[in-house]
């Protein structure tokens, strides 16, 4: 069975996983660490490894490993203290990129998330194209690499993201899914830990094929309520939706040019088109906002923005265009040509929210 939406469309799920995230941030910010085995954590006493670069992983260094063990395995290992404020800031950048393509984002940690892009096809292309675009934008804007798995459910998308690491992506199609799951060792299944794996092994279950050969009532005697989930994933089936607890904070659109722009009339025409597209998106979702952000990316990939907030919500396309053009004029004359322009509206609320706020203002609730 292939997971579908309520309208019968096959789901398109992407799992994005940053490559050696903490260690890669440290190598990015301290170029002398590039190419060297790096561990994030405390290297003395009873410290443990929080994250390891790929150079360190070649020596068997892994997260949660005692620092002393890591140093025995890799005497040249360089320890750096964690900077969680920096990792959180980079994570916010990455999630802002996700939000350009879908609202259905389920973060798993600072460095990985599920994205349901089923409804994004018309605007952004296939899930494969979207994953490629996201990875490219992450690299452009943060200097870091990410891997992506694309499939028709969460379970297979997460497996797929491991398949081309680092800095790659892999697709598991509906035709591939059941046999792909059957070919895996049970310890490769996310959700099956060491204790469950050992129990399965004692029952003669070593692969997905072994697991799906066991009748459900037999699995239930040994694994209780989890038996149905194990039986399903062994067949490549996972109907869990991507659950987003994120309240949308902004809506935007942008475009990258085949040839860089350098004149105000050219840029103004692009901004007008972007504002029209942005307002259509707002109308489709019954949204508006108070704050407009105009972003320019120059030919040298440097990014700059200008922001202006209003006391009231934008009420039509013309108001957005006027504000965006005013912001655009502040960038001219240019010192560098432009390769991308983006327009974003934030401080969002729905029409109903605005009416409720007005009623409350006048003493009603």
TrEMBL record:
The record marks 22 as: Substrate discrimination. PROSITE patterns: UMUC. Binds 2 magnesium ions per subunit. Keywords: Cytoplasm, DNA damage, DNA repair, DNA replication, DNA-binding, DNA-directed DNA polymerase, Magnesium, Metal-binding, Mutator protein, Nucleotidyltransferase, Transferase. InterPro entries: DNA/RNA_pol_sf, DNA_pol_Y-fam_lit_finger_sf, DNA_pol_Y-fam_little_finger, DNA_polymerase-Y, DNApol_IV, Rev_trsase/Diguanyl_cyclase, UmuC. Mg(2+) binds at residues 17, 111. SUPFAM superfamilies: DNA/RNA polymerases, Lesion bypass DNA polymerase (Y-family), little finger domain. Its EC number is 2.7.7.7. Its cofactor is Mg(2+). The active site is at residue 112. It is found in: Cytoplasm. It catalyses: DNA(n) + a 2'-deoxyribonucleoside 5'-triphosphate = DNA(n+1) + diphosphate. Belongs to the DNA polymerase type-Y family. Monomer. This is DNA polymerase IV. The gene is dinP.
